[in-house]
Amino acid sequence: MNNQKVILWIIGAVVLVGLGTLLFTPKGGAGVVNVGDAKMQELVAQGVRVIDVRTSGEYEAGHIPGAENVPVNEFAQAAATWDLTQPVAVYCATGSRSASAVQTLEQLNFSQIYHLDAGMIAWTGEVERGTAVAAAPVVPATALDSPMLYEFYTDW
Amino acid sequence: MAPVVDRLKKEYEGTVEFRLFNVDEDTEGQALMQQYGAQYVPTFVFVNADGTSAGQLVGEQSEEALRKQLDALN
Question: How far apart are CA A132 and CA A63, in angstroms?
């Protein structure tokens, strides 16, 4: 009888500890959910904030409807002003630049982060084209030491 | 494209500076890509020594097409 009581107490303690772990998840560093095209379309329909971290030129050529354009080199500064309790979904062309944006969101302790990890190339929904939310700045020509060729490429 | 660009880079050394950016990793490249309004990758942006833009080529290019733009730089 006593042994049965002890066993019941132990089982009860284990269940309580398990429940406690599940219910009281530490704040910060919340999990990132990698999503595919179908789930991303659901998130868009739900009105989740969607951020396109490509350049304004890429964004203007075609983006997920309703997405805001925040190029990845400006992302940290912008994200610091957002409500970190609200869900955010991010994407880029192939998932590389957006992975960096996801890390930034994790560091800022955003609680709900969605990542279209295959990128815009996996998107099969409607595509919006046109003016970026933030226009690229006009930069006056600056004399260089010599003529220049810039090549912009990715590994894919 | 890499072998073609590497070959041209050596040939034009001292005349034209080549700067190649993997925009998935390079923040300076991302900023420049935005500055020049480049929309796709690869994009080649040609800039004269006075800083004025001398044109862009989008997508994979023949060596001949790149040479033509490089020879037109001043």
Answer: 10
Q: Which residue has the tokens 């220049």?
A: A148
| Statement: the pTM of the whole predicted model exceeds 0.90 | no
**Which of the residues A56, A63, A117, A150 would you substitute to probe the B interface, choosing the one with the greatest number of B C-beta atoms within 10 Å?**
A150
Calpha distance B58→B61 (Å, rounded): 8
The CA distance from B56 to B62, in Å, is 14
Closest CA to A60 of A128, A153, A144, A1: A128
Return the half-sphere exposure (C-beta side, CA atoms, 13 A cut-off) of residue A11: 6
Q: What is the mean pLDDT of residues A76-91?
A: 92
d(C-alpha A137, C-alpha B28), whole Å = 15
